[in-house]
Design a protein that fits this description.
alpha+beta, 13-stranded mixed beta sheet, 5 helices, 17 strands, 17% helix
Amino acid sequence: MPGRLGEGSLEPSRTAGGTVMSTRSPRELALEQAASPRLPAGDDERFAGYGVMGLPFASGHYLAQRDFPATSIGPGYRAVWHRDPAGGWTVYATAPPEVSCARYFGAALTETVTTPIDVTWTGPREFRVTVPGVLDWDVRLGRTAAAAVLSRVGGLLPERAWRSDAVLAPMGPMAGAMLGAGRVALRGTTPNGQHFRAAPRLIWTVAESSARLNGADLGRPGALPTQDSLGDFWLPQRGIFAVGQTSYEVYDPSRHRPAVTGVSAA
């Protein structure tokens, strides 16, 4: 069950000399969170876990993935986001829209589908995401110098900094420039109207990836001709994987849009 995430649980290990080093693999971090899901303190709507923040394909398709073992609004869940070349978004999730990604992004979606999603780690930095009968997606992670620096910074920042708009506002553009990911925003407003804050404490880049959607090969990864966004959340123009937390303003039906209307179940 969701509990509390202490600041140290996502921090990189330190050497005897005090240098911050990220020693645990993405697989170790993912399995640790699945075995002991915990949340940061707060009175907003909170999520802790990991995922591919986004991966563009030269064909115009776009994929993103979320695995949140802990949330403050319901059971942990997994989700896959897909953008087709025409710009339509579908979110597949293991939990209903009201307690998953569509709670915040539903106004910008073409469709939401409640369905099983499997994530299988095949190596320390390799995993496969499967939406049965729909998607088979293989990912291999790498670590650029910029991602290592940002992870070092993320491990040093106290929790209060990750909850400060004044800190997050300049961090997003800085991270986007360092990673070559285009525009990045770590705070802003979702399509449904809630304020969000993202805290990607540890970062890797996607070194290789392939995917088949409904039997069709999505081709090679490559930046979209025009970067896309969902509200103020900008989808990175290169594959980025992060471990951390996200928080949202508490849903208020008098000010925020409902999760979504066109819902289907697999």
